Amino acid sequence: xxxxxxxxxxxxxxxxxxxxxxxxxxxxxxxxxxxxxxxxxxxxxxxxxxxxxxxxxxxxxxxxxxxxxxxxxxxxxxxxxxxxxxxxxxxxxxxxxxxxxxxxxxxxxxxxxxxxxxxxxxxxxxxxxxxxxxxxxxxxxxxxxxxxxxxxxxxxxxxxxxxxxxxxxxxxxxxxxxxxxxxxxxxxxxxxxxxxxxxxxxxxxxxxxxxxxxxxxxxxxxxxxxxxxxxxxxxxxxxxxxxxxxxxxxxxxxxxxxxxxxxxxxxxxxx
Length: 271
Known about the structure:
about 15% strand; 8-stranded parallel β-sheet; TIM Barrel; globular; two-stranded antiparallel ribbon
């Protein structure tokens, strides 16, 4: 039914990566993942990472790179291009940088520069959303404002389907909305509803996880409320090239690797 290569966002297994970089990548491959999306390089050189991925048989498809690191300029982009990444992704930005914020104009100009640097190094720049981009300014979502302000040739979208849902929109509809501008899609599952402290579940600094798990809980793919057959069908329609599993914090009594295994086993069962 579906024929997507599946990557794992390595933030999902970040403590394992810190403890055993190469061993964790080998385990990810053994679970059946085709590629990985980096979230930090753990002190390794680009050449080392490229070699390790090649030996294991994992495609280093993309990387989440913090805004401050992107501001360092071309060397950052060269590093990820040398690893072999095809996409470099802005993973998170503060409200002051989004539409209506005091630093929005500065952010838009920098995103355009990042897009040019990505293109010059054989990559595409993407933006990874959360739910707060689904707040409106002048009747328009902040997320849509970003994509209106930056040309498609300089910024692609990496929709996180969990946060689209939490933000109040249908993930499948939003994937179709960005047809032609979306090549990698984040698959993330959850139960519960938006709660005050839910960002404690993604490891956000200074945030505590909800004390009542029923309020909001990230889950392995296929273990929550998301309609993944519909999401994958929409992904197929728009010509997406990769789907990426992400689970910021483990749940259901499983450790990080076990959650990654549950997610890919579910996806294999419906592919």
